Amino acid sequence: MPSSLRHRQRAALPALLAVALLASLFACGVLAPCAAWAQTGAAVDARRPAEVAQVLFGIISYVRWPVARPEVRVCMLGAPRYGAAIVDTPASSLGQRIRVKIPPAAAAAGECDVIYLGSLPDGEREHLLAQIIGKPILSVAEPGTSCTVGTMFCLRLNDAQIGFDVNLDAIARSGLRVHPNALQIARRKAPPP
Fold first, then answer.
1. Going by DSSP bridges, is the β-strand pair 162-166/177-178 parallel, antiparallel, or unpaired?
2. What does the CA dihedral 146, 151, 156, 161 come to, rounded to 10 degrees?
3. Which residues, 6+ apart, have CB-to-CB distance to 36 below 8 Å?
């Protein structure tokens, strides 16, 4: 083998090692934060169901029905993404006993004080909301589902927290009384990143 070819191979080896080292340092520097972010995102995703349940029960604590309820019946309808935590952690909230159930949508107007809406086809959602408009039934839409006109509270997810929007017209038609503090909470926005 000519000496010039051997010299080029020897020179190429350190250059190749330098490129490999630089690439591995870059990968560690770039991918490590991504892996940490993915782990943090997974931890947040694992906490979300419990946080959604807490916000739902908090909203319920701010609501008063025209006739006092010895037990607030929370009905989950559709396919709720965060429903397991709601079923697993029924709570008492400011003296209110809460019972969670999953009835057929057709029975919701007669069996529920609160309707927690998971994903439903638009036609079914509109039909359900038409049945409960004007009745003292609190309606709360799960984060990530469509928030239609008749829904009173629409949960929304931000990176840092769970918030909600309020439909004052739907609340006024229902006859429910919602404490002003709940409305103030709804006005708060997520803290800037």
1. unpaired
2. -160
3. none
pTM, whole model, 2 decimals? 0.70
Structure tokens at 18: 């330098």
Digit-coded pLDDT (tens) for 14-58: 343 233 333 333 333 444 443 333 344 455 567 888 889 888 988
- Count how many residues are written for the chain: 193
- Nearest residue to 66 (alpha-carbon basis) of 134, 11, 142: 134
E strands, 15-161, are 63-64, 71-77, 92-93, 96-101, 114-117, 138-141, 153-157
Contacts of 73 (CB under 8 A, 6+ apart): 99, 101, 111, 112, 113, 114
Token pair in block for residue 149: 């006109």
Q: Which helix (H) or strand (E) holds 165?
A: strand 162-166
- Report the C-alpha gap between 193 and 189 in whole angstroms: 12
